[in-house]
Amino acid sequence: MIVSSGRLGPSLRKALMVLHIVTSVGWLALMLCLLALGAVALATEDADTLRTAYRTMPLLGDPLILPLSLLSLLTGLVLALGTPWGLFRFQWVTVKFWLTLAAATASVFQLTARLHEAGDVVARHPTGSIAAMHLGFTRYNLVIVPTLALTVYVVNVALSVVKPSGRRRSWADRAGARRGRRSG
């Protein structure tokens, strides 16, 4: 059975879990690649090496950022809603959801823009020194942003593996606790 009483059936749950893990690992691997290219571009003194790294980054990011980030987010959401874990029942699931939503939003809107910014700069300066490109903070952004993204992904992996205890209290539990403090 695919879905029973609001829960995913075992076959669908396993298929979604595989898709979730594959897309999440792919997203993490993409960030590792972008970080490696950004670090090479930051560390190099050779303008051609920098140009090659910056031309490569959008080639990786354009076809992969949107599908990997959205599939990771959506499969995680379906798994949370279709299993006993729930989306807001356990703190670690809730934290993981918000971190993934923030990372997906930042990846789609900010990281993609930074990759295109770097590609545009090297396209406008096909020759000449690194200093002549006037890159400003771009060189650092292309190391900082993937590093922050990787940090979020590692936290998500740790949350998924450790599953720290901490069931979220329901509204009824909170209201009862407030009533108990007032009457006591």
Please, could you describe this protein's structure?
By secondary structure, the chain is mostly helical. The chain has 5 helices and 2 strands, in the order E-E-H-H-H-H-H. Strands 1-2 form a two-stranded antiparallel ribbon. Strand 1 (3-4) and strand 2 (7-8) form a beta hairpin. Helix 1 (10-43) runs antiparallel to helix 2 (47-81), helix 2 runs antiparallel to helix 3 (91-124) and helix 3 packs antiparallel against helix 4 (138-162). The chain starts with a strand and ends with a helix.
**Which range does the strand content fall in?**
under 5%
From the helix content, strand content and strand pairing, which structural class follows?
A: mainly alpha
Number of strands: 2
**Strand neighbour order, sheet with most strands:** 1-2
Q: State the end-to-end distance.
A: 50 Å
Q: pLDDT under 50 segments (min length 5)?
A: none
Percentage of residues assigned to helices:
over 70%
Could you give the order of the helices and strands? EEHHHHH
Radius of gyration: 22 Å
Q: How would a crystallographer describe the biggest sheet? A: 2 strands, antiparallel
The 3D shape can be described as: elongated
Q: With helices defined by DSSP (H or I, 4 residues minimum), what is the helix count?
A: 5
What is the average of the pLDDT values? Answer: 89
